[in-house]
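Researcher: Before we compare anything, I want clean individual predictions. No alignment, no superposition, just each chain on its own. First chain goes here; please echo the sequence and then give the structure tokens.
Model: Echoing the first chain and its structure:
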Amino acid sequence: MDQFDKTIIGKPEPWLIEAAAAIGLDFSGLTHETTDHFRNHVINRHGDPAKHGTATVTNLDFDKIPAIVKSPDMAIIGAVRWGNLCNVYIKIEAGITYLYFDEVLDSKRNKALRSSTFYKVTRPLILDEVLKNVARNDKTDISKAKILTMP
């Protein structure tokens, strides 16, 4: 198994622990983390200006992740993406919608909300557009997820 470097962002906020508990999940012992594998994936998949234009994810965008998970504008908790339990955090800033996904890992070896993907849309999305974006191509099942909009 390949090794990777990980960076701990911090513990889940109380709103996230409560939202997860409302659908039978316990995030209280987990931590948010990113990995170099995640960073490489995002740059390779969403970081090419020739393909993505103004939606290109840059190194500066990664600095936004701690604020996105702490205080998103919307969140989808307990979705299933590619068969794995995940969360999606959505933040709208300066006319751009950021979508950050983490995978829920709760085993003996891994207790984390580990980064899985991150991309942006170059306009503000409303909730219905976010849900369509996340669930398109049947990648992510949100049927049993808790969907939150923050005040």
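Researcher: Okay. Second chain, same rules.
Model: Second chain and its structure:
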Amino acid sequence: MSSLNYPLCVCIVTIFSVLYLVFDKWVIRFFKIKTDSVSYESSKIAIDRLATWTTWLTGLQTASIASMGFLFNDNKGNLELTPYGFFALLFFGASIILATWLLSSLPSIQQRLINSKDPEPQNDIYMMRIFSFVPLRMGRFTGLIHTYFLIGMVFFALFVFKIFSH
């Protein structure tokens, strides 16, 4: 793969991400996605678990990127390995950036929860905006983070397989 194609791949992933997040209202209407009524306590637990999951995921991806550096360096920079490594870095990097944004939005989400004894539809954190002033829904955001992590893992596995198959 020519190094000139790498910026194009970054642009394509960026455009896909923006379109995926922006067309959320259309997806909700088309698939008739409903909001669940959730208690205040359940929402707080969900936020805590989401923070733990996102932190763990970011750490795992960072460790994978570091191991790629060691493996690439030990392999004397074989250029055949570059496409797999590039795509693993691209998807891990995109997932880490989105996860960082997600983690920074969790206090905003917790502040907007409704503290009542009865379950409230406004407490469904996956239907809430990541920030009150940003029209991107938490559920779409977490889906994109997870998807990029999985794609990154596939390319990471191909990268490692290529190194050890020599």
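Researcher: What stands out in the second chain?
Model: Strands lie at 129-131, 134-137. Additionally, The mean pLDDT is 90.
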